[in-house]
Design goal:
Structural class: alpha+beta
Strand content: 15-25%
Largest sheet: 7 strands, antiparallel
Number of helices: 8
Strand order of the largest sheet: 1-2-6-7-5-4-3
Helix content: 25-40%
Low-confidence stretches: none
Order of helices and strands: EEHHEEEHHEEEHEEHHH
């Protein structure tokens, strides 16, 4: 189960020992119990695949007198094609839930902040996954960049908050650079999946599709950077800010020909994404 301590309390049902009592108090002691559990807020959304479900609920905290919010992701009979693609990406036969756990665990070990997993489990048929799940702890005192940017982005621009904005952009670029240096690619690297805490730390969430590509690594790097570019609101991030981001991301003071090609590929990708969203009546973030 990796670097973190987990115990198996029923068949293929693993839990962080610190949370064993709290989960048992909710009746969550087996994979079957997890899939029949409904005492939670359903976080369903329009584009969520039918085999997936997301729930939010509170449990007793082992460290505090206040309850802890946790998130449950369930994968119920994922399509065989989805599983085969996952196995190819991961270069191993793993369930959907365990893939997300493994990515978060490896990235955390590499110094990339990710939600803490407190439980996961799976059930298999003869060859293919029947269902799996992962439960993660809420990231305290943090919000996604989609929902909340640092206070320096509020109000009129002044010399002081402009400096703070530029510092933030450089920090964000450094975080994405460090993530890509692990050779992982996220494939959903939008502001909605990048969290920023009150004490200035970045986190990555929704790691179900994160992987280390054997080939086409550059292509997926372009995709990740394009998703950051695309989801950065135009009213807060100018074209100059976006160039500052890229310069900080590369760590170079002067753009090379290779950098210019990379930037053109990023812009081309964002334009395709924009055309797709406009076609479906959705707002394009970097234009607003």
């Amino acid at each position: 189960m990796g670097e973190r301590r987990f115990i198996e309390i029923s068949r293929s049902f693993f839990v962080d020992p610190d949370y064993k009592t709290a989960l048992a108090g909710m009746g969550l002691t087996s994979t079957d119990a997890v899939f029949s559990f409904d005492a939670a807020e359903n976080l369903s959304k329009e584009n969520l695949a039918r085999f997936r479900s997301r729930l939010r609920f509170a449990i007793d905290s082992p460290q505090s007198s206040q309850p802890t919010t946790v998130f449950l992701k369930r994968y119920d009979r994922p399509p065989i094609l989805v599983q085969l693609k996952n196995w190819l990406s991961a270069r191993s036969r793993k369930s959907c839930g365990f893939l997300e756990f493994a990515s978060a665990n490896k990235l955390t070990a590499a110094g990339i902040n990710a939600p803490k997993t407190i439980s996961c489990g799976e059930q298999w048929g003869v060859l293919f996954e029947k269902r799996s799940f992962v439960i993660t702890e809420n990231i305290s005192d943090a919000e996604s960049l989609e929902r909340k940017l640092p206070d320096c982005f509020n109000g009129q621009a002044t010399s002081e908050n402009l400096k703070l904005r530029r510092d933030f952009i450089a920090q964000l670029a450094g975080f994405i650079k460090k993530f890509h240096e692990t050779e992982y690619r996220h494939r959903d690297l939008y502001f909605a999946h990048i969290f920023y805490s009150d004490d200035g730390r970045f986190y990555l969430i929704d790691l179900a599709r994160a992987f280390r590509p054997i080939v086409l690594s550059r292509r997926f790097q372009v995709k990740d950077v394009a998703q950051v570019y695309y989801s950065a609101p135009g009213r807060y991030f100018s074209q100059t800010d976006r160039l500052r981001f890229y310069i900080a991301y590369t760590g170079r003071r002067k753009l090379t020909n290779e950098d210019k090609i990379f930037i053109r590929r990023v812009i081309s990708k964002t334009r395709r994404m924009a055309r797709h969203d406009i076609k479906h009546g959705r707002e394009v973030p970097f234009e607003h």
